[in-house]
Amino acid sequence: MPQPRRTSAAPAPEGAAPAPSPAAPSPAESSAPTAATPTAATATPPEGPADDAPRAAAPVDGLSPARTRTRAGRIATAPDASNGETLRRVREGSGVLAAAAMRRLDEDLDWYRALPADDRSWVGLVAQAGITAFVTWFADPSRPPHGVGEIFATAPPELTRSISLQHTLQLVRVVVDVVESHSDRLAAPGGERDLLEAVLRYSREVAFSAAEVYARAAEVRGAWDARLEALVVDALLRGDVDDSLRSRVAALGWSGRGSTLVVVGTTASPLDDVRTSDLRRATRRAADDALVGIQGDRLVVFLGGTGDLREAAASLLPRFGPGPVVLGPTGEDLADAARSARAALAGLAAISAWPQAPRPVLADDLLPERVLVGDASARALLVEQAYVPLLASTGSLLETLTAYLAAGRSLEAAARTLYVHPNTVRYRLRRVAEVTGWDPLDPREAYVLQQALAVGRLDHPGT
After folding, report:
1. What is the pLDDT of residues 151-200, one digit of tens each?
2. Other CB atoms within 10 Å distance of the CB of residue 78
3. Would you put residue 48 in left (φ > 0), alpha (ψ -120 to 50) or beta?
């Protein structure tokens, strides 16, 4: 029961602070003045009769005399009689609070009802640990509250990994609501407000502690994902596509639906953590699946999904530096993505031989330049798509194309060499475009066909 108050021997002068609680201040409060509390040397006593009666303590920041701020800025309550009675009642009612919290969890939280019985029992222990930690802190508010890690120490690691930040905050909210609803019965007369404020302060500290714990976990997971992503990109560039790689890609969220496309370019300057995170978010917005590899000043982006991947790649062009950007061939799976990446990298290495190349440029449009840098796949593809179809065609297409290119792309000169009309040469060249996909009348595509004829004759001597 609260003790009766003592009155001062002399009435306090007009404008003086209200009379203090009979409880003496703690040693920490009396010996270590804070910035908000004037020291004895600087405090100005209120006007009034000078006698031996106890003076009224001035309120600090509008708080009652029994409550002051700790060095950390928290509001601590002095251990007066009403607080001691409230503390005793809270300790005795901790079991009631835990039971009420469990009932509320079962009534309000769907995810809690869906947990197995063992996990529900562990959650009950966590709730009890939270209430016990609050009681311990309420006995000495100057000490920092227990964090989420200490509250969850009673639970197995599997439970702490299965409960998300949202679930943790819901758990804290339910426990706070239960203590708040029981504050009228637990607090001593006149101590209801102090108990309620203590609950709110404690729940705030636990919520911030939970956010900090999960934020650190997210940072660790992000760093781990970045390292795993770098290993996956390196394996794809080497062509090491096996079951373990597919497992690692799936761990990064790669769904594997739709087609794949690889974009390769350079960066103007090394990417810091902020720009790298921004790039990864942009790639994941552009396509269903995305992987990002940063290798010095070289940037490799793997895109996947069911949408238009070339349009997605075009939206990422501002993320690259001012240099060339090469798009690899579109594929269907990870193996095709690895081949696409090698083609794009070979195109990036050879693109300086074509100064007029567009941005972005397809790797298959750089077949002659890739042949010059020793890309064996480009050489085989050029022969397969251009020379072999002409070799197998009828109507003297290979002979006509050879004469046309040897004559400096002159229809009349080629006609004189072949003893045919220029319109016949023009018709045969249109047939060459239909068979190969490259138009001899276009200067750039005529260069591609000239390279195809040279490489084809080297690979097929005697034809």
Report:
1. 655 556 556 556 676 777 777 778 777 777 777 777 778 777 777 777 77
2. 18
3. left
Phi/psi at 68 (nearest 5 deg)? -145, 175
**pTM exceeds cut of 0.70:** no
Q: What is the pLDDT of residues 92-101, one digit of tens each?
A: 877 787 788 8
Find residue 301's DSSP bridge partners.
Answer: 263, 292
Residue 311, both tokens: 């349009």
For the chain, count helices (H), then strands (E).
21, 7
Which region, left, alpha or beta, applies to residue 297 given φ > 0 means left and ψ of -120 to 50 means alpha? alpha
Long-range contacts of 306-312 (CB under 8 A, 24+ apart): 306/257, 306/258, 306/259, 307/258, 309/259, 309/260, 309/261, 310/261, 312/261, 312/286, 312/287
Report yes or no: 343 and 378 within 8 Å, Cβ to Cβ.
yes
**Helical spans, DSSP H, in 297-442:** 309-315, 334-350, 367-372, 376-382, 388-392, 397-406, 411-418, 422-436
Fill in the amino acid letter for 145: P
